[in-house]
């Protein structure tokens, strides 16, 4: 119980310490990468010619909409929030598109409107969370029902979409040999890159981290907390609108049942990607890897030709492992 | 430097449900001047600061900054008007790097967004001005609280504000860190910044400040040039009581504490917990008030928690009245009538959603067990007794304790249970801290190593505050009720007879 002796001017933190800090922050993302590689290795060992350009391409090709959803979700989760509305937005945005295309509207008008429909739902959730201080869970739950209801109002049954511009997004295949990709996939990767830049090279992005780290402090530091919280839901909604476009292109239809539970897949991908649900820690790149892990599990299940429901079991186990892993890292950091 | 008024608060009134926290208070801050804001706990210092920095909305009165009337709707507004604040608790983001915390919202931007190397360079410059050589790319959480406090101050300097508010910035700093801070504050003063300095260390006020505003019970007592207000007068101005009366109390208290022959009420030997505190020994005799001194993080809070069983000790043993006792949980400690008043009373001391009355009787009821509920009459008696003896303001037992001011909720958290040994951890302020009085006490029982720089956590302190601030004659006699008077459970250490 003696007070530490007074030292002179404190000299703190060497080079090693800052490297270790950044390594610690990236550790969950690295872990996701390692798991991805291990899974690929295990698949190769079990199935023989598992890892191929075709497989790696299809990892992206199957889930561009999930990547986009995960990008938006990363914004929300980094502030410590959650957005449950995004899955329903996919249905609403898809059906809105289907109806407008059926009415003969041009793609140049329909596609932006589909995206904006998501922005709108995001704005509603954002206003509730940021300005009325409603818990994100409840606010976005309301947004989820709202969007799903709007989808049913738009159409009670699935509508096919025949539009070249929409088909082009995921229907075109560019590639060299077996390496293929689609404009939609490139769009989703572009969004990941933009999100990374926003997170790490803009004041808004840093405020997102600050709010997730300690909202009270962020407020007292004079940061625009309310605006930032509103904006992350707006971004998430917009991403959901874009994902709706991609999903409509993927299925070439609008369906009131589309995107059921997809918000939870997005959350799972973000968490597997190393972002902590309480906010303030994580990287959007991790969310991309999270989606890839998710996609790889899907493909492996198909390879094993067992019931596709096994995907959920594996994802569930994976999620548990990751949450425990994050706790362990957090505990280590505290020490 | 001519004393131009930078910020002026006039006739500020802020009312919380049932109580006026501030009642027509004026405060004038002048460029190039360091202004101390003094007053005991609950006098309204923090409320006034929050009014100035835009955290609280003002009910009536005006705020003028730079000659223009302002109405702040938040801290961002106040910062934009040039008011930077360093709070007592470090308000930074532990998940970000040191440099980011200094520069957050003020990052240097290039063509491609934030220019990180320039940002960190600017942060390093600000930190070096404070005498801190830190790799700004390290995590904030890897630094001690004291360093974090300096980082918060560095942040305030980056904002280049006209007014710098320092709300007890020194409470977690050691002597040399305080020196560095003072040097920086003086430098800022010389460049024409108006500094508002809140502290409980009178030495620091006289060392640093040019002018003093004293608050008492939400009212301004007056504004004095430091040179014209001797220390003793400052203390009695703060308390509204004659110093001589206070000293008389001290003498009596000393007489009780001096009897070393009695069996200690509480004795612990080598009490420790892995990774928290290495074996500490302590003796508490009847009528004694023992201070635990040390800097933030030195283990005072932790030891207090161990004594109370809030954390489980994994080494050492304890004796209550000479008999071995296992203080393994708060419940066990309470059974030995050891009470604890947390430094973080809002989350650890009270249950904010319950009323003042419910909080007061909670621990008593818990000890009786749910099968024997206290009758309404008994509850009323308990509540009545504590509300008067602790001076809970306003005397409204039905009020939700969440709406109470800090000082009030502290008083509520106190009363719970029937403490024989209040083991209280850092109560930030000894408003009655007449340093002369304090020094005398520490010379008798010299457990306080550095009274000036250290924040003594203590029951000593806390009881002094209550002694001084209200009917002193009852509580000064003994801090601890004598073993013989094993009276009803509802007797407090404050009111029971020796």
Automatic annotation (TrEMBL), chain A:
Residue intervals passing through the bilayer: 25-45, 65-82, 89-107, 113-132, 139-159, 179-199, 229-251, 257-277, 309-330
Keywords: Cell membrane, Membrane, Transmembrane, Transmembrane helix
Protein location: Cell membrane
Record's keyword annotation contains Calcium: no
Taxonomic superkingdom: Bacteria
Pfam families: BPD_transp_2 (PF02653)
Topology relative to the membrane: Multi-pass membrane protein
Protein name: Sugar ABC transporter permease
UniProtKB/TrEMBL annotation, chain B:
GO function terms (MF aspect): ATP binding
Keyword ATP-binding: yes
ABC transporter domain span: 7-242
Annotated segments matching region Disordered: 415-498
Compositionally biased region (Basic residues): 437-448
Keywords, comma-separated and alphabetical: ATP-binding, Nucleotide-binding, Repeat, Transport
Segments crossing the lipid bilayer: none
Entries under Pfam families matching the protein: ABC_tran
Low complexity bias locations: 415-436, 449-476, 488-498
SMART domains tied to this protein: AAA
Protein name: Sugar ABC transporter ATP-binding protein
């Amino acid at each position: 119980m003696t007070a530490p002796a007074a030292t002179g001017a404190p000299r703190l933190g060497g080079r090693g310490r800052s490297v270790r800090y950044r390594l610690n922050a990236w550790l969950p993302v690295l872990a996701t990468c390692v798991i991805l590689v291990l899974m690929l290795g295990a698949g190769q060992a079990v199935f023989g010619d598992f890892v191929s350009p075709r497989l790696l391409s299809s990892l992206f090709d199957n889930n561009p909409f999930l990547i986009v959803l995960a990008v938006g979700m990363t914004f929300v989760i980094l502030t410590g929030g959650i957005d449950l509305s995004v899955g329903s937005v996919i249905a609403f945005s898809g059906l809105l598109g289907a109806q407008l295309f059926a009415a003969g509207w041009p793609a140049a008008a329909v596609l932006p409107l589909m995206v904006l429909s998501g922005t709108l739902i995001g704005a509603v959730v954002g206003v509730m969370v940021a300005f009325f201080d409603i818990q994100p869970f409840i606010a976005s739950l309301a947004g989820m029902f709202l969007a799903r209801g709007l989808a049913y109002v738009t159409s009670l049954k699935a509508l096919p979409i025949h539009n070249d511009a929409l088909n082009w997004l995921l229907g075109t295949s560019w590639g060299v040999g077996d390496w293929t990709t689609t404009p939609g996939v490139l769009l989703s990767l572009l969004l990941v890159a933009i999100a990374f830049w926003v997170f790490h090279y803009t004041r808004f992005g840093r405020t997102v981290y600050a709010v997730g780290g300690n909202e009270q402090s962020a407020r007292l530091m004079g940061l625009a907390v309310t605006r930032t919280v509103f904006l992350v839901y707006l971004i998430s909604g917009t991403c959901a609108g874009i994902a709706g476009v991609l999903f409509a292109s993927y299925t070439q239809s609008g369906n009131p049942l589309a995107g059921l539970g997809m918000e939870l897949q997005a959350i799972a991908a973000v968490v597997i990607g190393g972002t902590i649900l309480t906010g303030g820690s994580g990287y959007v790149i991790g969310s991309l890897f999270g989606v890839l892990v998710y996609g790889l599990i899907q493909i492996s299940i198909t390879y094993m030709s067992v019931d596709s429901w096994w995907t959920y079991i594996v994802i569930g186990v994976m999620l548990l492992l990751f949450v425990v892993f994050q706790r362990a890292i957090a505990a280590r950091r505290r020490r | 430097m001519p004393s131009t008024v930078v910020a002026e608060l006039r006739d500020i009134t802020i009312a919380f449900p049932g109580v006026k926290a501030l009642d027509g208070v004026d405060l004038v801050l002048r460029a190039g001047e360091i202004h101390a804001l003094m007053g005991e706990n609950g006098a309204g210092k923090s409320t006034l600061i929050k009014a100035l920095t835009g955290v609280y909305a003002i009910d009536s009165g005006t705020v003028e900054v730079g000659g223009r009337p302002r109405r702040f709707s938040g801290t961002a507004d106040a910062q934009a008007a040039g008011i930077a604040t360093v709070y007592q608790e470090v308000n930074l983001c532990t998940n970000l790097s040191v440099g980011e915390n200094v520069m957050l919202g003020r990052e240097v931007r290039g063509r491609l967004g934030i220019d990180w190397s320039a940002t960190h360079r600017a942060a390093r410059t600000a930190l070096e001005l404070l005498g801190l050589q830190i790799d700004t790319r390290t995590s904030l959480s890897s630094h001690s609280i004291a360093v974090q406090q300096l980082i918060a101050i560095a942040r305030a300097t980056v904002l280049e504000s006209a007014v710098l508010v320092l709300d007890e910035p020194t409470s977690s700093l050691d002597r040399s860190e305080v020196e560095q801070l003072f040097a920086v504050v003086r430098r800022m003063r010389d460049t024409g910044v108006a500094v508002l300095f809140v502290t409980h260390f009178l030495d620091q006020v006289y060392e640093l400040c040019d002018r003093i505003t004293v608050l008492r019970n939400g009212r301004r007592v007056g504004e004095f040039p430091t040179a014209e207000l001797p220390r003793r007068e400052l203390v009695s101005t703060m308390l509204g009581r004659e110093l001589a009366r206070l000293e008389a109390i001290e003498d009596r208290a000393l007489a009780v504490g001096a009897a070393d022959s009695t069996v200690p009420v509480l004795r612990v030997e080598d009490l420790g917990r892995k990774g928290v505190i290495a074996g500490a020994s302590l003796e508490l005799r009847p009528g004694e008030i023992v201070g635990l001194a040390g800097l933030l993080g030195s283990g005072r809070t932790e030891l207090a928690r161990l004594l109370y069983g809030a954390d489980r000790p994994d080494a050492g043993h304890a004796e209550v009245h000479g008999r071995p006792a296992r203080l393994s949980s708060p419940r066990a400690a309470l059974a030995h009538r050891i009470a604890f008043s947390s430094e973080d009373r809002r989350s650890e001391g009270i249950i904010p959603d319950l009323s003042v009355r419910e909080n007061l009787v909670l621990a008593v009821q818990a000890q009786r067990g749910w099968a024997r509920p206290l009758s309404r009459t008994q509850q009323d008696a308990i509540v009545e007794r504590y509300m008067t003896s602790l001076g809970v303001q306003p005397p409204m037992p039905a009020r939700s304790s969440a709406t109470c001011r800090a000082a009030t909720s502290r008083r509520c958290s106190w009363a719970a249970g029937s403490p024989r040994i209040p083991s209280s951890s850092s109560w930030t302020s000894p408003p009655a801290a007449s340093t002369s009085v304090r020094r005398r006490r520490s010379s008798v029982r010299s457990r306080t190593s550095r009274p000036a720089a250290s924040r003594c956590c203590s029951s000593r302190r806390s009881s002094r505050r209550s002694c001084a601030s209200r009917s002193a004659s009852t509580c000064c006699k003994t801090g601890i009720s004598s073993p013989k008077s094993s009276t009803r459970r509802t007797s407090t250490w404050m009111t029971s007879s020796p």
